[in-house]
Amino acid sequence: MPDTRHRLPVVQPDAEPGTPGRRQFLASAARLSTGALAFFAFERAEAGSNPAPAAKRSSGEYNWDEHRWTYLIDTTKCIGCGSCVRACKAENGVPDGFYRTWVERYVVGTEKSFVDSPEGGLNGFPSVQVDFHASKAFFVPKMCNHCAATPCTQVCPVGASYRTKDGVVLVDGKRCIGCAYCVQACPFGSRFLSPVTHTAEKCTWCYHRITKGLRPACVEVCPTQTRLFGDMKREDDPVRKIIETERVEILQAHLLTEPQCYYLHLDKEVR
Amino acid sequence: MPEITGFSFPNDIHVWWSLMIVMYPYITGFVAGAFIVTSLYHLFGRKEFKPIARLAMATSFAFLLVAALPLQLHLGHPERGPMVMVTPHFTSAMAGFGILYSGYLVVLLLEVWFVWRSEIIARARRSRGFMRGLYKALALWTYDTSPEALEIDHKAITLLAGIGLPMACMLHGYVGFIFGAIKANPWWSTPLMPVIFLMSAAVSGIALLIVLFQAVSKLNRRQADQACVSALARWLWFFLIITITLELLEIVVMAYERSEPWIIISELITTRLQFSYVTMQMIVGGLIPLILLGVVVLMNRYLHPRVRNALSTSAAVLCLFQVFSMRWNIVIGGQLLSKSLRGLRSPYEPEVFGREGIIAAIALFLAPFVILFVFDRLLGTQPAEEEPAGHGDEPGSRAPAGTSTVTL
Fold first, then answer.
1. How far apart (Å, rounded) are the C-alpha atoms in residues A72 and A230?
2. A185 chain-B contacts, CB cut-off 8 A
3. pLDDT (tens digit, 9 = 90+) per residue, B93-106?
4. Which residue, A232, B61, B195, B214, is most buried by CB atoms nearer than 10 A?
5. Residue A191 and residue B338: Cβ atoms within 8 Å?
6. What is the reported pTM?
C-alpha cells in the first residue's frame, strides 16, 4: 500500500472544464467587475463544470419542497487522501477525535481481511503490512446515511433529531438534551456527543452550504469525484440518473433504515 | 484513549452510556422488585409476606424517589431533562419515561397513603407540637378510622396494588425495551431483553428485602420471621432460575444460530466481560446462590433458623452482585462492541469523582436507605398490629373505643 501522506491533495481544480468560452468570458468579467460579481461568476463556472446539482442561490429563499438530496460514493475511485475528512473538520469545526465523515481502508484476501481507519483517515493512510496474501485493497468513505426510515430520529425523546423535507437528517442543538440514545441507535456509528456542545452531532451534508447552492465540503474537495451529491427531484440530475439506472448498494440493507447515501461497487466486506 | 482490537468505527470507541446508566436499571429494578413483594401480600393475599409488606412498599417508594436521578446526572444538558416530560416525542420509547414514572409515582404515593393512613392518624393523636401538625397534614386532616373507612382503605389498597403492579412492571420492562429495541446493537437487540430485565428486577428486589429484613430484625433485636424468610427464599429461587435461564437462552440461541454478530459477541464475553459476565453474573452471582437457595427451599424443614438466615442472606447478597453485573454487562458490554462487528474496545473504567463517577453511584445507591430510615422514623415500616399500643405521651389523647371521628 503506497504511503499517501506526503502527497495529500488540496482542493483540486475541476477535472472536467466546462465550456471554455464561457469560462473565459466569466473570468474576464470577474477581473473587470466588483468583488461580489467576481464571486458570483466563479461559483457559476464551478457549478457548471461539475455533475453536482445546486439549489438556486441568488433568486429568493431556499424552498425545501423543491429538493430531495442524495449522495453517491464510488468506492473504486477513492484514493484515501483524507481531503474530505479534513474539509469536513474545517468546515464544521468537528472536535478532535470525532468524525462526521471518515474513510476506511480494506485489505482483503481470500481467507482474511484487514480494516483500519487511522484517525478516520484525517491524515491519509500510512502503509500497512498484513500477515496474509492480500488480493485486493480499497478505500470506503463513510458518513451519515441520512436514512429515510432512520432510527436516530425515531428514538430522540424530545424531537431534537429530525429529517427535513429535502431529505437531510439534522439535530437541533438547542433542543438536544444529550442523552445519546440516537448515538446508540445509529447502526453506522455516524453520531457522537460533542465534548464542546454536549449535544449529538453528525454529518449535515453541509446543510448551511447546500441551501445556498453550494455542495457539501467533502464533495467539493474530493479530487477523484468519489463523492457526488445529487438531487432526486431534478430530472436531469446526473447522480439521480446513476442511482436510477445503475446497480447501487446501501450499507446494512437488512436493517431497513432506507439510507439515502448510495454506493457503487461496494464489497461484501464492507458493513 | 481506549485500545481497540480489530476495527471499530471511529466514533464507536466511546462509552456514551456510563456508570449512571448502569445504576438506573439497577435502582428501578429495586422499585419493581420490592413492589412485586408487597403485591404478593396486598394483591395476592400471601399472608407469609405480611411481616415485610410495609417494608417492601417503603423500599419501592424510597428507590423510586431517586430513580430519575442517574438519568439526570447522565444527560449532556441536565437543565433540559424535564423537556422529556414537557415536549415528549412519542415515537421514542424514552419519551414514555415521563408518563410511566410520574404515573407510577402517583399510584405508589396514593397506595402508601392508604396503607399508612390509620398509622398516621394514630401518630397524630399521640404527638405534640410540630410533629402533630406534620402528621395532621400527612393525614390530610381526615381522621376517620371507623371500620367502614378502614374497609374503604383496604379496597383502595387492593385496587392501587392492582394498578401499581403492572405499572411497576412496565416501568422496568420499559428499561429493558430501551435496550432490546436498538436494532443497531446485536448485544442488546432481542425481545427477551425486557423480560430478562423484569425477572432480574424481581431477583434484585426480593434479594434486597431479604437483606433488609435481616438487618431490621437485628436492629430490633428479634429473630426474622422464619415463614417469611422461607417464602422470600423460595420466590428468590424461582425468579433466579427464570433469570439465569433466559440470560443463557439469549446467548445459546445466538451461538446455535451462528448469527453474524456471534463471532464478535463470543469474543466480547470471553475477553472483555470474562470477569463481570462469566465469573460474577453466571458463577458467583448465578450458580452459587442457585445452590444455596436450593438448599434453603428443598431442605427447609431440616434447617435451623440461623442456618436458614445465613444461607438465604448470603445468597441474597450474591444475587445483588449478579443483578448489578448483569446491568453492567448489558449497558457497558454493548458499548465495548463496535457496530462494525469487527472490533472491541478496552474495558471501560468509570471515573471516581465527577457527575458520573463511582462516588456519585455509591451515593445514589445509599440515598434510598437514608430515605427509608427517615420513612421508618416518621411512619414506621413494621406490620400494623405489631406497633406497640398506647405508646404516646398522653394515653388520654387516644380516641376512646367506638369513636370513629376525632377532632385533633
1. 8
2. 182, 184
3. 999 888 899 999 99
4. B61
5. no
6. 0.87
